[in-house]
Amino acid sequence: MALESMTGMLGEAKEGGYAVGAFNILDYNSMLAVVKAAEEVKAPVIVQTSTKTVVFWGTDAIISWAREIAGRCPVPVALHLDHCKDLGLIKQCIDAGWTSVMIDASASPFEENLSLTKQIVAMAAGKQVSVEAELGRIVGVEEEISVAKDEAHLADPQQSERFCREASPDCFAPAIGRAHGIYKGEPKIAFDRIDVIAKRTHLPLALHGGTGLSDDVFKKGISLGCAKVNISTQIKYAFIDGFVSYHAAHDKEYNPLKVIGAQFSRIKNEVAQNMTLFGSAGRAA
Ligand SMILES: [Zn+2]
Fold first, then answer.
1. 117: burial class by Cβ within 10 Å (0-12, 13-18, 19+)?
2. What is the 192 CA–ligand 1 centroid distance (Å)?
3. pTM higher than 0.85, yes or no?
4. Which one of the listed residues 82, 170, 195, 216 is annotated catalytic?
5. Using CA atoms, how far apart are residues 73 and 71, in angstroms rounded to an integer?
């Protein structure tokens, strides 16, 4: 199938009470593993690229992998740009063929965030490109943006409502207490806030910092309106551990394709497990 935007798949997910997994890929092999997992469990999928990954490979390479892989895959695939504050790079990705982008102006004051988000929504309009926007700060390390714990603040429901009404993004990422990276303690997720923000914005919400949350936390967040779950750190671990552990177990072998194959399988299996947990498995049947 051709690449599609997130709008349709997230609308169906919100309606159906499940979430679509959004996985940060690093290269062709990891992109193929994510999409093959989706194909195996019959799930819609969002393939995400960080801004660093886009800068590393360039848009031409990534869009050609995505079109080739999605083109021979029977389940819906969206290509999404994760956390980006660079308007030039967002435009470059839209022009290259990304079907979804995230404008992250959450570090800016409210009015500036609103204005930048409106600009991106206008840029995407008429191009079948969906837009995700963020309000409040997510703890941890994300793309070139570090948020110290005491600086982090949760998204305000009233501001969230106004932000979404005026900017009309397709997906909304309010800060609700989760962190990026690996959790050091038990994360405090503000479920009551997810509930009220989902009701007041009427938008599918994105749950960022999915790695390391318990199954119960995922299920509760999804039941309250999180229709997109981001998994990045777990893919980084599977990417490196899949490679290293194969070589450690076969240290005389030096057969690169077997090492790459082990990495592929590790990522594919973990992604498929996530899709089953999020309830998206079987939804693209
Ligand atoms: Zn994030």
1. buried
2. 20
3. yes
4. 82
5. 6
When pLDDT is cut at 50, 70 and 90, the band that residue 153 belongs to is confident
Please give the structure tokens belonging to residue 72.
Answer: 């021979």
- Polymer length of the chain: 285
- The verdict on whether 60 is a catalytic residue reads no
Are 206 and 226 in contact by the 8 Å Cβ rule? The answer is: yes
**Cα 25 to ligand 1 centre (Å):** 14
Chain centre distance of CA 35: 14
Contact of 26 with 65, CB cutoff 8 Å: no
Question: pLDDT tens digits for 53-95?
Answer: 999 999 999 999 999 999 999 999 999 999 999 999 999 999 9
Burial class (CB in 10 A: 0-12, 13-18, 19+), 212: middle
Check: CB of residue 79 under 8 Å from CB of residue 47. Answer: yes
* Helix pair angle (191-201, 157-167), 10° resolution: 30
Question: From the CB of residue 197, how many other CB atoms can be counted at a distance below 10 Å?
Answer: 28
